[in-house]
Amino acid sequence: MKTPKLGKAVLNYRHHRFGRCTVCGKLTIFFCLDKESFRNTMICLFCRSASRNRHVAKAMLGIIGEGCSSIADLPGSAVTIYNTAMDDCFSRVLRNYNGYFSSYYKDGVAPGTEISPRTSCQNIEALTYADNSFDFVITEDVFEHVRHPEKGFREIRRVLRPGGYHIFTVPFHFDRPTLVRVDTTGDEDVHLLPPEYHGDPLRGTILAYRTFGIDMFAQLNDIGFETRVEFSSFADRTSGIFDSSVFVSRRIG
Ligand SMILES: [Zn+2]
Question: Ligand 1 centre from 239 Cα, in Å?
Fold first, then answer.
């Protein structure tokens, strides 16, 4: 039987931490719901961000500067942001921010179909946004599920303004090349390894096609990105960021 969230919060009380959230900006408690995966938990009491959301926020704030210490502090419509997740902590904090766009993916729904202002159905391999639309694109644990990732990265580069940033997280092997789980060169998936599925809020579970490895940096460079990785440090714990890494990929040219 699954333990309810409140039960998990009680069981893991030793791992809860105080700090200031980089998404909502509040002094808060980060609740540990899963001590085996800090990056996906340590949930902010106010905006319900997880550790990796706050790490993505920190990477963005480092680029934006201008004294912004949280996403909730972003001035006016200073930047345009596209996030491939909807109904998450960024959507909650930026719901009245005109420069914020989000999307979902659902089979059978025409790409570009809006379900609310600035939220539409999108296929990352064929986005409906115009060229040079955004300063930031956020994808969190998405690209391992993209059938043709090179197409997805090229699309993100197309919709980013020159000098714009793709900030993303993916499960990653820092000491190995990409592990290809499924051959996607033909029309049908050919499983090379036992299929691995990850949870998805809309679709239940989705297939992981690969675990990226160090060759991803060269692939991104060929597409026109300069990419670095930021690892969380001990000091980041005061911002509720634990055991995570974020890729910061800048459109060049
Ligand atoms: Zn928060």
Answer: 10
